Amino acid sequence: MSGTSESRDQPLFRSVDWDRQTGRTWSPAPSTWFVLAGLLAVGASFLYDAVVVPVDRPLLGSWKAPLVDWLLLVSLVLFVGYGLLPLATRHRTRKRLWNHVRRHPTVATSVGWLVVVLLLGTVGSVLLGTPVKHTAIPYQPPAFLPRNPYLPGECVGAVADGRCRGTLSYPLGTNVYGEDLVTLLVSGMRVAVTLSLVTATIIVAVATTVGTVAGFVGGRVDAALTSYVNLQRTVPAFLVYVVFAFLTKPSLLGLIVVFGLLNWGGVANVVRSEVQAVREAGYVRAARSAGAGRIHVLRHHVLPSVSGGVAVATTRQVASLILVEAAISYLELNDVMVRSWGEIVASGMGQWFPLNWWVVAAPGLALVSTVVAVSVVGDALRDVFDPRGVP
Amino acid sequence: MSDAPLLSVRDLKKEYPVTEGLLGREVERVRAVDGVDFDLAGGETLGLVGESGCGKSTVASTTLRLEEPTAGRIRFDGEDVCAYDRSSLQRFRRRAQLVFQHATATFNPRMSVGETVAEPLLIHGMADADRRRAIVEDILERVGLAPDDADRYPHEFSGGQQQRIALARSLVLDPDLLVADEPVSGLDVSVQASVLQLMADLQEAFDLSILFISHDMSVVREFCDRVAVMYLGEIVERGPVEDVFERPAHPYTRALLETIPEIDPATNASPSPITGDVPDPANPPSGCRFHTRCPVVLRPDDLELDVDREHWRAVYGFRLALERDSIDRAAVADRIADPTDAAIRAEVRESFGLPAELGDDRADAMLADALDAFVAGDEDAAVARLGEAFVSPCERTRPAPAAVERDHDAACLRDPES
Amino acid sequence: MSDSSLLSVSDLTVEFDTPQGTIRAVEELSFEVSPGEVVCLVGESGSGKTVAGETLTRLVPTPPGRIVEGAVRFEGRDLTSLDESDLTSIRGDRIAHVFQNPQGALDPAYTVGEQVAETIHLHEDAPDARERALSLLDQVDLPRPTNVAEKYPHELSGGIKQRVVLATALAADPDLLVADEPTTALDVVTQAQILRLLADLQRERDLAVLFVTHDLGVVSQIADRVVVLYAGRVMERGPVTEVLGDPAHPYTRALLASHPGRGESMTPLRGTFPDPVDRPDGCLFHPRCPHAVEECRETVPAEHDVSWKRSAACLYYGDDYDAERLDGDRA
Q1: Helix (H) or strand (E) holding B34
Q2: Burial level of C167, CB count in 10 A (0-12/13-18/19+)?
Q3: Which of B74, B414, C219, C281 has its CA 20 to 30 A from that of B370?
Q4: Strands B45-49 and A163-164: what pairing?
Q5: Is the preceding peptide bond at C64 cis, omega within 30 degrees of 0?
Q6: Considering only CB atoms, which chain B residues are within 8 Å of C221?
Q7: B155 Cβ partners below 8 Å, 6+ apart?
Q8: CA C267 to chain CA mean position, Å
């Protein structure tokens, strides 16, 4: 009458011999397998490079594999494994993200631009290599555009009305060293990607660990951790980097480490409050009453619900970090060998500015676009993952 | 099937210390459960009823050791639950399940119905996802849903259906004991009926023992075999459902039953509900905890005053209010426009139903003196003046359960016949 | 429509626009409340009873809600066409509302006494508002009104808060009290106390009460007349003794039969509530009715008289069918 059947047959749940069921088996998710495999590959290559390949000889092609690049590889593995791969299995999240992207063209454009930056920054920079100096042809204008006659250097293209015109060999022009701006732009993407991913990885790792411990364990541990976090948040990473650059030498790795280790506090707070909320939730009580231990609760309830907030908070950090790097370059506190967008802009704002406007415009636009795109994507993530948005 | 009960609880206590200050100095103890005994046989349904705050949910959580009891013996299938080691506790968690009140809150909104129902299987080590899926689809059908519903999300279902999902989840480990804490509260009547019917069918099909906790007496009457009535952390009456409902022995049970209006208005006498609120569990009344609200509290055996029972009860109520600090001169004065002494006296008489004459000179004198003291602001003196004559044995002695009839007892000092 | 009625609702239809479609919450709802009378709107989830109660003084937000047709006459004036300023002078003053959750009605930032006094201020110039507030708190049987008046809502229990809300509602001495499930969130004993209080107050002030509830026990305790709703339409109406003692409509019968603990065997009602976006054709109850016939699927039944002052929206009470056939288990 109301839907239950008589026991016409033994129900399946009664067929389980619980006494024989083995206890916990370690069944890691596919993401974890991927990450383990990836890290193993990276680790092996690193060892090979460190031990086998002589110092100062490139590992692959012209790539000398500095430490920063290894960190980038590790971060990429983690990003793809824990960030992108889970979307393949979580249909509902994937659908919601896709729907949101479809419905908001701004978000779609932003995601598109970031994908371009990511791909060109990693793969593209390897293909294009480092920018080559051609001291004879500085300040070539972008294709088909004229340049002011006062600018020095020969002209690669035709000269019309006394003005040098740009060519397609250097579509965006060249800078003071005759380096192709397209290659420079791509190397800037590489720097942006490295900066963002590696710092983000450090922040996410530390913040999630600290936030989860503080939120889950509570009590004195929580009090201690929270006090530390609050203290740490008062330390301005920018100044610390400046001091660090002054004392040793400016470096991208230094910037990454300083920001990574000093800016995770805000994200940790987000994680902590989310963990506290989940800890009290009815479904955690229900799981506990069914015999769940802390590990199960952490893995199946706490961490999945934390991921949304972490993603949102971290993208904000990334956006500000890109700007900070530009500021640091402008202040000439960066490593000039690192060709970031900020560095290109800074070097272009010399005596010839604004005649050599293209040297500033291209990377400047890229900078602005990327920061805006990251912010837009951050907002979109917040809109999608905000629990009030659950249909 | 042995004759021993599946679940046997003796003298269960749970206290919560209330602390203050940095060092956690204990200020008082809330005695949420203060000495509860009951048995639950295999295949039987025992109802636990009482007002909110009487401790019934705490009984549920301590019996299952989701909270550690402060004291007491709990035996499940002959084993001492409090002495369980980790693996035995894990086994207990499989054999005894808890069903919560609002199903929605017990579902993780990010998990599908299938994942939610399968979670207990995963917790207890069933790694084979296909097998879990098969079990889940099978059990969903048995609770009146479709196997496809496993892919949908809990918020897509109505309250009654969510409760069915919760029931499915509680059954998936094939438990022997189900503790249901208000499982149908908050559901529409017609939905409630079908969920109760489902629970009854499931109980019969799978030979479950159910501890059914509810504040709704009608539901308990419908569903349970036996019932225990709780008040402020203690069980005041227990017995077979029909016996307790037809012949309630404890005044609290009687009062509770009176608050259930009959649906058929022809038989509906206007019920006179119990007065007052449930006392603070951190500061429970002495002796019989119900004495502060009991309409038939016992008079002293050696009462020499010749006072009508109703009047005696009225003066007693006044004395209780004084003693428990729930009234003072200032409070009464605020209620009236012109607070003269006479007006205050009149107001007190009226609120407590104190008649002008009690029918006994000494009693009248005592009352008059007490009122004088009260009006003068000296509550202690007023209490003292009312003295031994208006004190009840119920506040001195904590009644032990006394047999009313076979298998039916009530913790009351009164003779059940009266 | 008699002229002596205080409130007269006729053919009220309210719809809501939602992403899933248009929901018809209330359809062709008509009923009256006379001065000093207690009328209960009874129904389960989706019956439209709450929307009906809120629409009376247009508390329903109008998007997404919409009064499609119908009138709500209060003392002769149609509330559906009044402008907002006139409505606000009626709300609270002549028609007061009490809701299920006292939480929402009380501002956590002010003491309870201040809030009652403020309500008095809202409707008249009252220099003695504080005394009147205390007096009101006393009238709702609060044991120590001065004490309670100093407390903030979060310091009080549910039962006490609900009494405070009642006091606030009565502050301006309204003619009609609309109460939507005011005791559902409270436990049995407190519920009984509040209901008794309400009955006393109603008698003392000759207050008309429209009580919206799903609880038949509550209905039997306080109602004079009952209107049974299902999926937005009236199924049955009449004096409470008759409707509950000898229900006419199959839904009312099923509802009573699914009430637990009545000693007779409880019979659950089969099926589920209709999808609000996609309601059945014809009689809204027909998919679940054991006595449904072909015609039930085709036409929406009119309300036929069952007896003096009692009617049921079921074609078995019309001329073509025999109502006694409803007494058997199956048609």
Answers
A1: strand B25-40
A2: buried
A3: B414
A4: unpaired
A5: yes
A6: 261, 265, 268, 270-271
A7: A390, A391, B104, B109
A8: 26
Cβ–Cβ under 8 Å, residues A267 and A204? yes
DSSP C26-76: EEEEEEEE-TT-EEEEE--TTSSHHHHHHHHTT-S-TTTEEEEEEEEEETT
Spatial contact of A291 and A284, defined as CB atoms under 8 Å apart: no
Contacting B residues, span 148-207, partner chain C, CB-CB under 8 Å: 158-160, 188-194, 196-197
Q: How far apart are CA C237 and CA B49, in angstroms?
A: 34
d(CA B238, CA B203): 22
Residue B344 near residue B333 (C-beta atoms within 8 A): yes
* Burial annotation C180-199 (CB, 10 A radius, 16+ → b, else e): bbbbebbbbbbbbbbbbbbe
> Please, are residues B233 and B54 in contact by the beta-carbon 8 Å criterion?
yes
Give contacts of C270 with chain A, Cβ < 8 Å: 1-2
Q: What length is written for chain A? A: 391
Written as one letter, the residue type at B156 is E
| Average pLDDT of the segment spanning C40-67 | 88
CA A128 to the chain's CA centroid: 22
Q: Give the separation between CA A247 and CA A243, rounded to whole angstroms.
A: 6
Name the token pair of B260.
Answer: 């259930």
pLDDT, tens digit, 9 for 90 and up, residues B324-342: 777 777 777 776 767 788 8
Residue found under tokens 């069933």: B126
- Supply B303's token pair: 């009462």
For residue A210, give both structure tokens.
């600290």
Divide the 391 residues of chain A into consecutive groups of 10 and give the mean pLDDT of each group.
49 78 66 89 87 75 78 90 82 84 92 92 81 82 82 80 81 85 89 92 94 91 94 92 89 90 92 91 91 89 88 90 89 83 86 83 92 92 67 39
In the numeric block, which tokens belong to residue A120?
Answer: 């060109």
Residue of A nearest to C272 (CA): A2
Rounded Cα distance, C303 and C318, in Å? 8
How far apart, in whole angstroms, are the C-alpha atoms of residue B78 and residue B85? 15
Residue tagged 């960190």 (tokens): A71
User: A2 in contact with C at a CB cutoff of 8 Å?
Assistant: yes
| Both structure tokens of B256 | 């509770």
The per-residue DSSP string of C198-221 comes to HHHHHHHHT-EEEEEES-HHHHHH
Does C188 contact B256 at a Cβ distance shorter than 8 Å? yes
Q: Which residues contact A381 (CB under 8 A, 6 or more apart)?
A: A308, A311, A312, A315
Core vs surface per residue C264-292: b (16+ CB within 10 A) or e: eebbbbbeebbebeebeebbbbbbbbebb
Q: Which two tokens stand for residue A300?
A: 């199946």
- The shortest C-alpha distance from B335 to chain C (Å) reads 7
pLDDT in tens, B266-312: 555 555 556 667 788 888 888 888 888 888 888 887 777 777 777 88
Round to whole Å and give the CA distance between B354 and B367: 9
* Cβ A238 vs Cβ A324: under 8 Å: yes
Q: In what order do the strands lie in the sheet with C77-78?
A: C21-33, C7-18, C65-74, C77-78
Instruction: State the Cα–Cα distance between residues B227 and C54, nearest whole angstrom.
Output: 40
Half-sphere exposure of B48 (CA within 13 A, CB side): 31
Cis peptide before A86 (omega within 30 of 0): no
Q: Are A281 and B105 a contacting pair at CB < 8 A?
A: yes
Using CA atoms, how far apart are residues B176 and C221, in angstroms rounded to an integer? 41
- CB atoms inside a 10 Å sphere around CB C31: 19
Helix (H) or strand (E) holding A330: helix A303-330
